[in-house]
Specification:
By secondary structure, the protein is mainly α. 64% of the residues lie in helices and 2% in strands. The chain is built from 19 helices and 4 strands.
Length: 452
């Protein structure tokens, strides 16, 4: 382990890395339930999607561990799967096989970009101030996701408001309350420096939920999306994978408008590129993995692992596989090397055998982990200089931070941050401060808003 992952050099241990890997997996295990339900809207077999998601996650995360020695996990990206189903298939009328082909081609383009200096140059071109802002913005973003997953935040007249705990208390109210308790448990454990505090908090919250069901305080209501909290034990039908495996090549492009198809590929490419970029920047910043110039040593193999996973996932039968922001949960408990990622990868492949057990971890138990990790990433705001001397960097950083949670997109935060950074510094006479690649990025972002 020491020879492969250089644990001492990174100030970590086997135990700490394994706990971090388990924590990362548990925090993102919801994707094993959510992704099949979203892609099933297109007519895809849910079990096949589940298996494809598990295997693609294993491939991508294992490659991240072995090629890059970084603690990042990969799986089917949220947002990208919604774009796959609701925009490309249901909205534009393409078959899910064509959508998978677009994802596959996107991955191939990424592989080509990853073995050249292009993606790494873009990563290094983003100023250190914006990279730190990305970390803070992602913190707010995943906190917001956690609040939503916990149903503590719901839609209302003001767009978002706190849940009414008294309404439907046996389902909505009690689970939201359990999520709030889970946040308190994790906070106390973390403050008291208990190793694995986030993972322990998830398990305690889940156990409390099962207690509530046992005593009849929580009442399952499958029609409303509230299921039993006790895990079920049965094997998965592995033959179902044949329903989606290789189907991205079983398409007839004669009836597909080439221009529209290229737009679909570019949309997948764009969102995946900058979501991955933002996640790597944010999580690496939190883990103190960026060097003094704000660069991430060894980023090229990390980007390559992400690209290969995308194409592999499309062949298996799932939407874009990308680096997950929930990797921050493992980093938050001390994960610093590829052993964290390898642990997560192993759990993904094991979940193909016992998927019902892993997916039965309720959202109200994992949501507090996102809220707590959001706090840990938000602490990076103290590294941003906000005085008058640094306003040309501080204001773009501020735009980056608020854009992510409010526009519900990491890539939007990066887009607006880069555009504002270039425009503000140009108009304020700081052209020499701008990396030439930033001009290209700003133009591409502006074109994106015009044409996509």
């Amino acid at each position: 382990m020491e020879k492969m992952f250089k644990l001492k050099e990174h100030g970590t241990t086997v135990k700490k890395e394994i706990v971090a890997g388990i924590t990362t997996f548990v925090t993102m295990a919801y994707i094993l339930a959510v992704n099949p339900s979203i892609l099933a809207e297109t007519g895809m077999d849910p079990t096949a999607v589940l298996l494809a998601t598990c295997i693609a996650s294993f491939i991508g995360t294992a490659l991240m561990a072995l090629l890059a020695n970084m603690p990042f996990a990969l799986s089917a990206g949220m947002g990208l799967n919604a774009y796959f189903s609701y925009t490309v298939v249901l909205g534009m009328g393409y078959s899910w096989q064509v959508a998978l082909l677009a994802v596959f081609i996107e991955g191939v383009i990424f592989i080509l970009l990853s073995v050249t200096p292009v993606r790494e140059a873009m990563f290094n071109a983003i100023p250190l101030e914006l990279k730190k802002a990305v970390s803070v913005g992602i913190g707010l973003f995943i906190c917001f996701i956690g609040l939503q997953n916990a149903h503590l935040v719901v839609g209302g007249a003001t767009l978002v408001e706190m849940v009414d705990f008294k309404k439907d208390f046996s389902t909505v109210g009690i689970t939201a309350l359990l999520a709030a308790v889970g946040v308190a448990i994790m906070a106390i454990l973390y403050i008291r420096k208990i190793p694995g505090s986030i993972l322990i908090g998830i398990l305690i919250t889940w156990i409390l939920g099962m207690d509530m069901q046992f005593f009849g305080i929580y009442v399952p209501n499958p029609e409303a999306g509230y299921y039993t909290l006790f895990p079920t034990f049965h094997m998965t039908d592995f033959s179902a994978l044949g329903e989606t495996f290789g189907q991205c090549f079983n398409v007839d492009l004669h009836n597909v408008g080439i221009l529209n198809f290229v737009v679909v590929i570019f949309a997948f490419l764009f969102v995946d590129f900058f979501d991955t970029l933002g996640t790597l920047i944010g999580v690496a910043s939190k883990a103190d993995m960026l060097d003094e110039d704000g660069k991430l040593p060894g980023v090229k193999p990390a980007l390559l692992a992400d690209a290969i996973a995308t194409s592999a996932g499309a062949v298996l039968g799932t939407s874009t596989t990308t680096t997950f922001v929930e990797s921050a949960s493992g980093v938050g408990v001390g994960g610093r090397t590829g052993l964290t990622a390898l642990t997560t990868a192993v759990l993904f492949i094991l979940s193909t055998f016992l998927a019902p057990v892993f997916t039965s971890i309720p959202y109200f138990a994992t949501a507090p982990a996102l809220i707590m990790v959001g706090f840990l990433m938000f602490t990076g705001i103290s590294d941003l200089k906000m005085d008058e001397e640094h306003l040309t960097s501080a204001i773009p950083a501020y735009i980056t931070i608020f854009s992510m949670p409010l526009f519900y997109s990491i890539s939007e935060g990066i887009s607006l941050g880069c555009i504002s950074y270039v425009l503000i510094n140009l108009r304020c006479g700081n052209a020499k401060k701008i990396n030439p690649v930033m001009y290209i990025l700003a133009v591409l972002f502006i074109l994106k808003y015009i044409f996509i």
